[in-house]
Amino acid sequence: MSDNSILYDEGAGIERLLEIMRRLRDPKTGCPWDIEQSFATIAPYTIEEAYEVADAIERNAFDELKGELGDLLFQSVFHAQMAEEAGHFTFQDVVTTMSNKMVSRHPHVFGDETREKSAEQQTADWEAIKAAERAEKDQQGTLDGVAVGLPALLRAYKLQKRAARVGFDWPSAENVIAKIAEESAELVEARDHLSQTEVEEEFGDLLFVMANLGRHLGVEPEAALRKANAKFTRRFQGVEAKLATRGKTPSDSDLTEMDALWDAVKADERREE
Fold it and tell me: What parts of the sequence cross the membrane (predicted)?
């Protein structure tokens, strides 16, 4: 096989992609943009690609999912190439680490433990194994290891979930709902009498408690908000479509008309269900 043949060999699998990445980062012959990148500059693209995967799944766009998963895989390859250049680790090290982790975390599949466990027991065992892994990394605090770079709403959910494991939690959803009422009142008070900084703080407190309510209700808040965003987008586009039949755009309309059309779009959806 010639030096370049792997670049066009569709059967070469992951080795083809790794070679393409090495070529892109070659200091002498690679792509100037790729060569300039660092972990910090690529990280936002990694997050974006993960969300595009989630978006394709949310829309059941499985024809797009293949490409989106490829984009996300490329992000891992990109980071691993930069890490290898810096002498930190290789892509194979990434694969080995993940394989070891999955084998270790599934003793009921790859070890001697029985598979006859409830979902709750498997979850408890999983968390115990992860706690042991954190201890090996000297992550002794309850909240250690919850990534700072997560979307804020998702991180709030995970922080609260961690705290709940050690008993720092409201007894029921009713307690959380009462706290939401309290935080809402504090936000109104801040709006009327306090500084913008304090308004922001109270607003953050309210969002944090809303994330906690989601956990108590078995709702992952990031996923719920993503669905709400999709619903709003769909319905507003429906409003635009109805305005278009009148020869108008939202800029030509007003709130009264658009609100009525919004209700009409909702009614259309209910008839289609």
Answer: none
